[in-house]
Specification:
CATH topology of one domain: Rossmann fold
Strand order of the largest sheet: 2-1-3-4-5
CATH superfamily of one domain: Toll/interleukin-1 receptor homology (TIR) domain
Radius of gyration: 41 Å
CATH class of one domain: Alpha Beta
Largest sheet: 5 strands, parallel
Shape: elongated
Distance between the termini: 45 Å
Order of helices and strands: HHHHHEHEHEHEEHHHHHHHHHHHHHHH
Oligomer: single chain
Length: 563
């Protein structure tokens, strides 16, 4: 199938491997363009010199005819089912010889519009019954012999079913596969019926009369076949040949009304069938898009390349806009990369699609918190996350981070002590829920040290706590396989805040190297902010600690813009 797709014509219908598979397995009837492109490609591959067939290659015509036959079968089947007010079942596009035989076994309907009682006073041959027996019946027999299918002759006045005659008459004009209008005698009803036929059907319509001089008005613009009692054999042959030629051409438009019309005529039954098929296809397409989105999401989760992960998640969102997981994971990446506007937009969609998913609200709150103008919305997002799950340590910890950032911005140039107290409460709650998790423990210790400096109380308890956390930090770094930058930053802080500048800066450099390039600037900015906060109480700290903090902040600025 890959070989076939690779040798498809450069100009024209593209052949996909999945489409080729469905066509060859008979799962569905392809479009005529797809089928002919496939046949041409196979003929080319079968040629020793790989020469493509010409457009008039006789080997192509049987495939066109067979496709037309199968398409008629599908349309007839839909019309029959819908007319019977029964649901249209799933189509089985694979066709067998028995199905083709079923099409051939169904009589072709040939309707003849002819004056009911007399052909008119000027007609050379006025006996309608004789015209039926000697002209029309031989015509339908000749057509049937040539197309290999029974042809049913229908004349309106011979019908016995009761009902409104115009409904039947106009219905035949619209639906009959073959329509013959006899204009002999200029009967106004025949002209009316011919007008309805031309207005509603592209083909096949044949106009006949005994004398061209008897034809009135617009029908003179089309080819009219004369017939007569004195030339019956030739008349039968010409009418039958015109019918066979017309039936053999799917592209023929013999109606002067519809010849250049941009619109097509379709019965309500056929329209209903197409709408139902389109609805089924829309459902199938939605299912395929959903599956493709899930496959892309799985691929994104399995790749270690952050850029490729973003591309896969963006494609997953495009293919399956209803996937809250794809929006959530993509928004989380945007947040980590510092693309806060994109993160907020994507995470809002995730929360709309899955309003009961607490982590999505937490991520949205974090992203909003990074945008100084969105603190109220950020707080609301965290409150929603905690309302859904108040035992999620990460939500409590990230809310603590929001309050700490808000403490910096509530009053420009001044740290808000009350907000820092609230942040400390959140970090301590997170530490209760995750006792061995370094992140809330370390942040709580930083705020304890900061508040002690602001309140002019002893900083020893906080520094002692930080010294103790060094052991947990070293274990966390080791446990992560030296791959998690955040625990490395925490370890660097335990060293810097206890005055061991050289060792702390070395660990800080290593932590920066662990950051993804696209996330490094945002991470280093976040890592430097608590250090800058502590410099506001430098006079309460050991000079070695103050110097180490200043060096660490400068290093963060330098590393943020290094490739």
């Amino acid at each position: 199938m890959r070989d076939i797709a690779g040798h498809a014509p450069a100009a024209g219908r593209v052949l996909s491997e999945s489409g080729i598979s469905e066509a060859l397995s008979g799962r569905r009837l392809p479009s005529i363009d797809f089928l002919m492109a496939l046949v041409k490609t196979l003929l080319r591959l079968g040629d020793p010199r790989r020469r493509p067939p010409a457009e008039d290659d006789p080997r192509l015509e049987p495939w066109r005819q067979r496709w037309t036959l199968l398409q008629r079968l599908r349309v007839d089947e839909r019309r029959h089912r819908l007319a019977a007010a029964t649901p249209v079942a799933d189509e089985v596009a694979a066709t067998s010889d028995d199905e083709v035989a079923a099409v051939r076994a169904k009589p072709l309907r040939c309707f003849v519009a002819v004056p009911g009682e007399t052909m008119g006073t000027g007609a050379a041959w006025d006996d309608v019954t004789e015209i039926r027996r000697q002209l029309l019946e031989p015509v339908v027999r000749a057509i049937g012999e040539q197309i290999g299918r029974e042809v049913e002759l229908v004349i309106e006045k011979e019908k016995t079913t009761s009902g409104v005659i115009h409904r039947s008459m106009f219905g035949e004009a619209r639906d009959a596969e073959l329509y013959i209008a006899d204009l002999t005698g200029a009967n106004p009803n025949v002209y009316l019926e011919l007008g309805v036929r031309w207005a509603t059907r592209d083909n096949v319509t044949i106009v006949i009369c005994q004398d061209l001089a008897d034809v009135r008005f617009n029908p003179l613009i089309v080819r009219i076949i004369e017939y007569g009692k004195d030339r019956l054999t030739e008349s039968v042959r010409r009418i039958a040949q015109a019918a066979v030629d017309g039936l053999g051409r799917t592209d023929l438009v013999d109606s002067p009304v519809r010849d250049t019309a941009p619109a097509v005529v379709m019965s309500r039954v056929d329209l209903a069938a197409i709408r139902q098929e389109h609805a089924e296809m829309a459902v199938e397409l939605a299912q395929l898009r959903q599956q493709l989105g899930e496959d892309l999401l799985a691929a994104a989760r399995n790749t270690a390349d952050s850029r490729r992960r973003v591309l896969l998640l963006e494609k997953a969102v495009e293919q399956n806009p209803a996937s809250w997981q794809a929006h959530f994971e993509l928004g989380s990446i945007f947040r980590r990369e510092g693309k806060y506007a994109e993160a907020v937009q994507t995470l809002r969609i995730a929360t709309e699609l899955r309003p009961d998913h607490a982590p999505a609200w937490r991520e949205l709150g974090t992203a909003l918190g990074k945008m100084s103008a969105s603190m109220a919305d950020a707080t609301a997002a965290f409150e929603r996350a905690l309302a859904l799950d108040d035992r999620d340590a990460e939500t409590w910890a990230t809310q603590g981070g929001l309050l700490r950032r808000l403490a910096r911005t509530a009053t420009p140039g001044i740290l808000d002590e009350a907000l820092l107290d609230r942040a400390l409460t959140c970090y301590r709650r997170a530490a209760e829920l995750a006792p061995n998790h370094l992140y809330p423990l370390m942040n709580a210790a930083r705020i304890e040290l900061l508040l002690a400096g602001m309140r002019r109380t002893s900083t020893v308890p906080a520094q002692t706590r930080i010294e103790q956390l060094e052991h947990l930090a070293r274990f966390a770094v080791h446990n992560s396989g030296n791959t998690d930058p955040w625990v490395a930053f925490d370890l660097a802080d335990t060293l810097i805040l206890t005055g061991r500048a050289d060792e702390g800066l070395t660990v800080l450099r290593r932590a920066a190297e662990l950051c993804a390039r696209e996330e490094r600037t945002a991470i280093l900015k976040t890592a430097a902010e608590p250090m800058s906060d502590l410099l506001t109480v430098a006079d309460a700290l050991d000079p070695l600690v103050t110097a180490a903090l200043q060096d660490a902040i400068e290093l963060c600025k330098t590393l943020a813009f290094q490739d």
